[in-house]
Amino acid sequence: MYKSNRLSQWFQQTVFVGPGLLFFTVIVLIPFLLGFYYSFTDWNGLDMDKATWTGMANLERIMSDDKFWESFWFTIKFTLITVVAINGLAFVLAVILVKPLKTKNALRTIFFMPNVIGGILLGFIWQFIFTKGFSTVGDITHIPFFELPWLGTPNTAFWGIVIVFIWQTVGYMMVIYIAALAGVPKDLIEAAHIDGANYWQMLKSVLVPLIMPAVTICLFLTISNAFKTFDLNLSLTKGGPGTSTQSLAYNIYAEALNNNRYGLGTAKAMLFFIGVSIITIVQVWVTKRKEVEA
All domains of the chain, ordered by start, with CATH? Predict the structure, then answer.
């Protein structure tokens, strides 16, 4: 009887978990392990027979690759600015839209809608807006903001990508913050009011500590998405002018697929994976320690 029960449990687990585990192994685990191997070769991505083992040669090339480090600092700056801006703006919008406004549902939908549009399509839409729409408005109004060469210089192109990424992402984070704020017990807010706390004191000492799980999630999502930004970078600027707005993900793509240096590109991807993993793990660990229970 015991043996038949164990056999039944094993069969159920195999039926329900097996297909997912199989697909994960084939689609994620095996390519990851192969990528780790190819990062120590000079494979060109085409001929398997020419994947010669080179040891740490790719790492040495990366250390002296100026374009890689330019894209690294671009990604760091882009991530810092967008993470702060997105979470700050999303929290402000969430605080406003949990209030009993007649138009709150419509506003929530409007702010969330950009997240539904894919990054490639969004990039092409905003490329048209920056090059055609803004220039037309600038010709009519002569407002300096619209007359800037938004995708024509490294500085303005950087801020163009920042603007579009924030516009796309802030609505999703807003929804998470709204859900967290809606779950804050009303009696705690009332107790804070009775104790004489003003709005900013209540926000700092009651609301923010209680929604720290949402802050953890939003910071994790925005940090990882900002570091991995690729489709928006590809469709909006293609890393230009020159390579001035090339993100790390785009640099890896260009190295592996455009330059046919798949081994070197995979080595960069492995370093990228390790770096992002360390940063996100530290972020989650730090913010988790600040979480409190209601």
Answer: 77-289 (1.10.3720.10)
